[in-house]
Amino acid sequence: MSDFQEKRSKPRIQQKLAIKVMEGDYCAVVETNNISESGVYFTADRPLPLMSRVAITLLLPTGSGKNSKIECGGTVVRTAPIASNIKITYDTAIFFNDINEKTKNLISRHIKKIITGGFKTI
């Protein structure tokens, strides 16, 4: 039996979504590993400084073949190097802390649709 206890208050889904992350002079377009109403987790090609502020643009599918463009700000709360035979990448977690209520609700509705089977994840 595991002693691990989930501390997240918002549901998190595993889904590959296009995301652009900007921090200082760094700009990367990557895919999410998972997302919740309160943050996102992805793999980057370089470490982002802990507690640094980032600008995020995320594309959420609408179900009609189009995407909703979501823009918000966040803070890097975790970065961990992942070594492979090819290169080192960095698993990165961002907490959304500059997000308006409308944007938060769009993300929340998207997650609920995935959880209830309204959309298929990739």
Describe the biggest sheet? 6 strands, antiparallel, barrel
CATH class: Mainly Beta
Contiguous uncertain segments of 5+ residues? none
CATH superfamily: predicted glycosyltransferase like domains
User: What distance lies between the first and last C-alpha atoms, to the nearest angstrom?
Assistant: 31 Å
How many β strands by DSSP? 7
Shape field = globular
Domain count: the total is 1
The order of strands across the largest sheet is 2-3-4-7-6-5
Element string (H = helix, E = strand): EEEEEEEH
Mean pLDDT: 88
Strand percent estimate? over 45%
Question: Would you summarize the structure shown here?
Answer:
The chain is mainly beta and 122 residues long. The protein is built from 1 helix and 7 strands; from the N terminus they run E-E-E-E-E-E-E-H.
What can you tell me about this protein's structure?
This protein has 122 residues and is mostly beta strands. The chain has a single domain (12-115), classed as predicted glycosyltransferase like domains (Thrombin, subunit H). The chain contains one helix and seven strands, in the order E-E-E-E-E-E-E-H. Strands 2-3-4-7-6-5 form a six-stranded antiparallel beta barrel. The chain is globular and about 35 Å long. The relative contact order is 0.22.
Structural features:
122 residues, mainly beta, Thrombin, subunit H, 6-stranded antiparallel β-barrel, globular
Question: Topology of this structure?
Answer:
Blueprint: E1 12-14, E2 18-23, E3 26-36, E4 39-44, E5 53-61, E6 67-83, E7 88-98, H1 101-115
Antiparallel strand pairs: 1-3, 2-3, 2-5, 3-4, 4-7, 5-6, 6-7
